[in-house]
């Protein structure tokens, strides 16, 4: 039961906070990523994951970190996004890594195109008092890719192996 609470409440809540933080500040604090990693460790114990299964998830997390920092080094995403990607992949595991990466990429493309389109039009005066909206609307600002990473996890999570593991715990 505790494993289900972690995957149905804690994981989505931490992802939503990370996405909201990214929208507001174009950063994702390290403590949110660390909280996701710590929550997975608690989940692994609560779901009674085998040592081998836990190891595969850890390998997935390191694979996600490698992919994320490669994209960061190429200038495609920020460092916080790279760490968030790795933390989500830690939860999802190797079996769902490709599906998650593809879904997050598509959602990131939709987010990017949407922001590019919205940035072509002036921000209404009543929204100009919100500094975070002004920054989000600025064409020189980046893309809060943590939103796409969180959304990809939300969409994919119910069909993942880790979700089934939580239900069986």
- Strand element count: 0
**Helical segment tally?**
8
Structural class: mainly alpha
Distance between the termini: 7 Å
Order of helices and strands: HHHHHHHH
Assign an overall shape: elongated
Overall mean pLDDT: 95
The biggest beta sheet is recorded as:
none
Radius of gyration using CA atoms only: 17 Å
* Strand residue content: under 5%
Range of helix content: over 70%
Low-confidence stretches: none
Number of domains: 1
What labels would you give this structure?
single chain; 169 residues; mainly alpha; 8 helices; 0% strand
Description:
This protein is 76% helix and 0% strand. By secondary structure, the protein is mainly alpha-helical. The chain has helices at 2-25, 30-46, 51-73, 79-92, 94-118, 131-137, 146-156, 161-168. The protein has one domain (2-168). It is built from 8 helices and no strands.
List the helices and strands and how they pair.
Elements (H helix, E strand, L loop, with lengths): L1 H24 L4 H17 L4 H23 L5 H14 L1 H25 L12 H7 L8 H11 L4 H8 L1
